[in-house]
Amino acid sequence: MLVLRSGLTRALAARMLAPQVFSPFATGPRQCDGTFYEFRTYYLKPSKMNEFLENFKKNIHLRTAHSELIGYWSVEFGGRMNKVFHIWKYDNFAHRTKVRKALANDKEWQQFLTPNLALIDKQESEITYLVPWCKLDKPPKEGVYELATFQMKPGGPALWGDAFKRAVHTHVNVGYTKLVGVFHTEYGALNRVHVLWWNESADHRAAGRHQSHEDPRVVAAVRESVNYLVSQQNMFLIPTSFSPLK
After folding, report:
1. Angle at 122 between CA 201 and CA 152, to 5 degrees
2. pLDDT for the residue numbered 194
3. Confidence (pLDDT) at 220
4. Cα 102 to Cα 123: distance, rounded to the nearest angstrom
5. Beta carbons of 194 and 128 less than 8 angstroms apart
6. Which residues are in the NIPSNAP domain (predicted)?
7. Residue of 149, 118, 136, 141 whose CA lies nearest to 68
């Protein structure tokens, strides 16, 4: 019995001395908040982009009557052409289920949607949470947006969260661009983080990019975070006339 007790004491002591790893992302306090953001990407058939957006503009009120639209953009650069990207906010999964059911029973919405589905070639959806250290911010005026997507190494935010946070904050603090939000994917490709930036124009973004590449503070922070990076890509986004984020 004494030997067993001694062994148990050593095991408990080892556990108490072992370093505890804490994640600054959605595994922390923010997970108590059920609010999430659905990223939707529609790949439209060639030559149908303008027709789809014009139809959606006329009927957007039918969709926003059911849930909040954060932003709606056309993709100018980055990846496949004839693509639109939009973000919808939900209080929780029960709220989204309720919204989808209501949309299915909304005759006006269905009358609009059914013929316009023929203009869409492909659809994608991701469920994301805002990271705990970031709130959704609204730009001071109209401009353009960049969605930078980072595929991180397996292991989750406990592995790469701190380094990524420092890299983002460094970009924000030097003032070359404005942060709108940082989102961590819950359903979709795991270990993926999306960063939504705002700039006054494409040239303003390019100038800030060149300056940041020569800023030792930015260079040092990025070098640290790339140790955990698998791949990255970005999209240059133009807000539509009916997008809440301009």
Report:
1. 65
2. 96
3. 76
4. 20
5. yes
6. 37-135, 145-244
7. 136
Place of tokens 């983002």: 168
- Tell me, yes or no, whether 3 lies in a domain: no
Calpha distance 150→246 (Å, rounded)? 24
Question: By C-alpha distance, which of 176, 198, 191 is closest to 232?
Answer: 191
CATH of the domain at 84: 3.30.70.100
Which of 206, 210, 205, 179 lies closest to 194, judged by CA?
Answer: 179
Kindly state whether residue 22 falls inside one of the protein's structural domains.
no
Beta bridge partners of 122: 43
pLDDT of residue 61: 95
Structure tokens at 38: 């659905």
pLDDT in tens, 95-135: 999 999 999 999 999 999 999 999 999 999 999 999 988 99
Does any domain span residue 88?
A: yes
Q: Which residues of the chain are under the pLDDT cut of 50? A: 1-9, 11-30
Range of the domain at 226: 36-239
Give the total residue count for the chain: 246
In this prediction, residue 161 carries a pLDDT of 80
Number of structural domains (the chain) is 1
